[in-house]
Specification:
6 helices; 8-stranded mixed β-barrel; 21% strand; alpha/beta; TIM Barrel; 2 domains; single chain
Length: 232
């Protein structure tokens, strides 16, 4: 009888611990979806809108606390967000500042990628500085690309789109890209770093933009948004 009683007690304890874990995990998931850095510490906040985000209610996004948005514009040599022009117009109508993002592909020539970007993004002095998303590595390129070539082609790309926009590009560098190529300190541009909840330091120098929550849930869109803040 004592053994059966002990066994039942252990099962109840295990069940209680499992329930606590589930409740804690659910609360943590809800918490990160709602979390944003303090506006006292970071007064300028906004969002990055991916091509997969779908319809966005820009007025609701503005009311949520966004002051600017970065819109996916182009990727590699051929991909483009067909909604970019519409999103640009509607975001501006909601009194949001707007910038454009290009997702860089080290496997494709710089000239082809810059031409793709310039086809989508107008020459407009009111746009925020363009951002180039650096996450893809050259390891899987069909033709071998050396580290020196990655840096050289990237510089060509930056120079070409900066001539088009008239503004210095922001390097949105992922931790894996920086770990592989160490370009944050090699290229003299402002950096945009990525890390949920905790401030990133992998660039080895101060960041200008920080993607603080890639899972931010808002009534402005069905899909989670990437919440971004500006350094003071």
């Amino acid at each position: 009888m004592a053994r059966k009683s002990t066994s039942r007690w252990r099962l109840r304890l295990l069940g209680a611990l499992l329930l606590l874990a589930l409740v804690g995990g659910g609360w943590g998931w809800w918490s990160i979806q709602q979390w944003r850095p303090s506006t006292l510490e970071f007064p300028m906040q906004g969002a990055e809108i991916s091509a997969e985000a779908g319809a966005v209610d820009w007025k609701v996004l503005k009311a949520t606390g966004a002051q600017f948005v970065y819109l996916d514009a182009s990727a590699s040599a051929f991909a483009r967000d067909p909604a970019f022009a519409k999103n640009l117009e509607e975001a501006r109508a909601a009194k949001l500042q707007v910038g454009a993002v290009h997702r860089y592909d080290p496997c494709q020539p710089a000239e082809s990628q810059s031409a793709n970007f310039m086809t989508v993004v107008p020459r407009d002095a009111k746009l925020l500085p363009p951002a180039v998303d650096l996450d893809m590595l050259a390891e899987d390129c069909p033709v071998k690309v050396t580290d020196a070539a990655v840096e050289s082609e990237l510089m060509t790309f930056l120079n070409q789109i900066e001539t088009h926009t008239g503004k210095a590009t922001i390097l949105k560098i992922s931790s894996r890209f920086e770990d592989r190529y160490h370009l944050a300190s090699a290229i003299d541009r402002n950096v945009w770093l990525v890390r949920d909840r905790f401030q990133p330091d992998y660039a080895g120098r101060p960041w200008t933009l920080w993607s603080a929550n890639s899972m931010f849930k808002s009534q402005a869109a069905e899909a989670p948004l990437n919440w971004v803040v500006v350094a003071r």
